[in-house]
Amino acid sequence: MKKLLSLVLALVMMLGVVGSFAEGATYERAEDEDIYMAVLGDYDEMMKAAKAAATNDERFVLYAQAEAALLDSAVMVPTTTRGGAYQISRIAPRTVPYVQWGNDDDRLFGLVLSDEFITPAERAELMDAWNKAVAGEGEYDPAGILTAKGHKIQSDYKTTFSTAPVTLDWLNTSSQSDTEITVNTVDGLVQYNNLNQMKPALAESWEVSEDGTTYTFKIREGVKWYTSEGEEYADVVAGDFVAGFHHMLDAAAGLEWLVEGVVKGASEYLAGGSFDDVGYAAPDDRTLVITLEGDIPYFMTMLTYSCFLPICEDWYTSHGGVFGIEEYKAAFADTAAYTFGKSTDVSSQVYCGPFLLTKLNADSEIDLVKNENYYKADEVTLNSITWIYDNGENMKQYYDDTVSGIYAAVALRAANGTMALAVEDGNFEKYAYVTDTESTTYFGGLNLNRGTFALESGAVASPKTEQQKIDTHTALMNKNFRKAFLFAFDQATYNAVANGEELKLSNLRNMYTHPQFVSLENATTDADGKEFAAGTFYGDMVQYYLSKLEAADGVPEDQYIIVADAVNGWYNADKAKAYLARAKEELGDTVSWPITIDINYYSANSTQVAQINAVKQVVEAALGTENVVINMVEATTSEDFYASGYRATTGAAGNFDFFYGSGWGPDFGDPCTYLDTFGVNGYMLKVIGIDY
Predict the structure, then answer these.
(1) What is the pLDDT of residue 20?
(2) Cα dihedral: 94, 95, 96, 100 (round 10)
(3) Chain-centre distance of CA 172, in angstroms?
(4) Of 211, 222, 290, 540, which residue is 20 to 30 A from 157 by alpha carbon distance?
C-alpha cells in the first residue's frame, strides 16, 4: 500500500498540487494533457484499436471493451435518457422523422396536431397502424385516423424554449438549442421519414464506388434559397455543399472532429493543409463528390447530421464570409463586416427548407412560417411553428395554457405540481401515457481540472476556500474517490423527483451508448477467446467486459454495475463506502476532509431545487458529511445556470465540480458517435473539465 500511495503522491506532484497544506496555498489548474492521459489515456488507445478493426463486428466488440473502460474510469455516470415520463399531448405519435441519430428528429414539417388530447386507446391504435406500415402492411395515416374519431387537425404548433439560439449559422454550432430551430429551415442530402427509412432529400440519387470510398450525389434541380421574407435568392447547387463543408471546418465549432478520419483530407486541412486536398468537390452544379479516407459502412447515416448541411455560398461571401481557417477567424472578429447568420437578425440567413425563420427574440418568441415555395410543400402539415420563452418558473401556468390549447403537450411531474393538477382535473386518468425512451443519454460529469469558480459577473460563486479547491481536485484525481462518489449518486431517487415514484426507473440509463444501438451480424470471438453469438446486442458485450473489470477489482458479483436500461444500475451505498475507504487510505494526508463538491441549480425551477436536495441527501448519507459535503450553489437566472455548465464552451469555463445537465444524442449509426466524445479532442471532455 505504501507503494500505491507513493504513486498517488507522484501524480499529485505532477499535477501541481503538492504542498497543498502550505500556508497561503493557491489552487492552480493543471495541464489538460496530463489529466487526460492519467484518467483516459488507455481508453483512447482502445478506441484507436477498435477503429483499426477489419470488420464491423470486430469493431463493435472492441468498442464494447473501450466503453467498459470509460465507465470504469468513473469520470462520468449515465443518468437518464429522454422520455419515460407521463405526458398528455395532442401530437400524433411517429409523425416526425423517426430515427435514433442525427438532427432529423427535430424536423417538424410532418407533425400531425389535433385540437384535442389523444387518449391512450387512440394512441395505441395509431401505433398499431404505424407498426404495420413499418412492416409494409399499408400506409400510416394518423390525420385520417384521428379525424374519423372526431378530432380536427391543427396547422399552427406552439411550444416553448428556455435557451435561445446564439447563431443562425447551422455550421457554426453543435448545440441542440441552436439546431432544433435552424434544422427546420434547411434540408440536407438525405433525410429519414417517420417510418425510419432513409429517403432522398436535396440529393435525388447517389452512387457508391466499388471500394466504398467515393460517394457521388446528384443534386435535385429547381430547389431555391429564400430570404426570411420568402423572396427567391439563388438556386441550391452542389457548390453550396462544398462551401458548407469548408465553412464548417473553418468555424471549428464542435462539428469538425466528427469528420476527421472520415472525409479525406479533413484532418490535414484542420492541421494547416490545403482545402484542395479535402475530399469534397462539385464538378458541376448538379454533382457532389465526397471521398472518404476508407470504406466507412455507416457514412450514409452521418449525412443527417448538421455538419453536412449546405450554405448558400454567394449569400455567405456577400455577408462577410471568407474561406480559410485563419482568414475566417479574422473575418468573424470584425462584427461590423461579418453579418452572416446573426441570431439578432433573421434576415442574415437564407433558407431552403420547409420553413422560413421570421422572428427570433431571445427572451420572448421564435417564429417559423411555412415556405410556400418549398419543393415538397405538399408534405408540410404545419403553417407555423412558434417557440415561446419559458424558463420553467410557473409550471401551473404552463399546464393551464396547455389544457386551454395554447401548447400541444405537457409532461406531468411530481416536483413541479403538474402531476397533481392533471390528477385533480381528470386529465391524468383520461389522457396520460408514458412517452417513449430514446437514444439520447444524459450523464453527470466530474470536473477533473476546474478552471472557473464564479461567472464574470460574480454570480454562481463557489463558497470554497483555496485549500478546499486543492483538496477537491486532489480527491477527484483518485479513481477510488470518483467511484465512491458515483456509487453514492442514487439515480432512482434523483429521477423520482422529476418522474414520480412510479416511473423512477422508466428512463434510467446505465451506459453511455444506447444498449441496443447495434448488434453483431455474425458470431465474433475476441482476443481472449470469448465468443459472442450473432445478434448479440452491444450492451450485452459492454456488460460482460465491465463485469470482468469489476471482478478484477474485487467487487462481489451481486454488486456489479448493471448496464441495462430502466434499472438503478449504479447506486450502492455499501459499495460507495468500500471505495471511499480505499480512497482515504490512498490519499492519506494529501487532503483534508470533508471534500466539498459544488453542484449548481437554478433556484426558480422547482424540479431542479428538489433534485439537488435529493442528491445532497443521498450522497451525504452514503459517504458521511465528515467525508463529503455537497455545496448547493444557486443560480438565480436560467442564463447564469446555463453559462455555468451547458453553455460553457470549454472545460476551463465549467463552473462546477459535478454537473448532470449535459447529454449526448448520437449523430450517426455507429457506437463511436458516442464514444468519440471522450477521445482526444472529444466534445464532451469539457464536462469533465478537460480541453485536450
Answers:
(1) 45
(2) 10
(3) 16
(4) 222
What's the CA gap between 370 and 374, in Å, rounded?
Answer: 8
Strands 153-154 and 280-284: unpaired
Q: What is the pLDDT of residue 21?
A: 55
Task: Report the alpha-carbon distance of residue 326 to residue 173 in Å, rounded.
Answer: 18
If you average pLDDT over residues 55-80, what whole number do you get? 97
Confidence tier at 22 by pLDDT (50, 70, 90):
low
The sheet that has 355-361: what strands, in order across it? 156-161, 384-389, 365-370, 355-361
pTM score: 0.81
Looking at residue 292, what DSSP letter applies? Answer: B
Cα-Cα-Cα-Cα dihedral of 250, 105, 134, 59, to 10°? 50
User: How far is the C-alpha of 568 from the C-alpha of 77, rounded, in Å?
Assistant: 12
Task: Give the tens place of pLDDT for each residue, 645-680.
Answer: 998 999 999 999 999 988 999 989 999 999 999 999
Q: Which domains does the chain have, with CATH numbers?
A: 2-82+439-688 (no CATH), 163-343 (3.90.76.10)
Averaged pLDDT score across all residues of the chain: 94
CB atoms near residue 260 (< 10 Å):
17
The helix (H) or strand (E) run that includes residue 626 is none
Beta-carbon neighbour count of residue 74 at 10 Å?
A: 22
E runs forming strands in 227-336: 232-235, 280-284, 287-291
**CB 170 within 8 Å of CB 312:** no
Greater model confidence, 487 or 257 = 487
| Angstrom distance (rounded) from CA 543 to CA 663 | 21
Q: Which amino acid is at 395?
A: M
d(CA 187, CA 226): 13
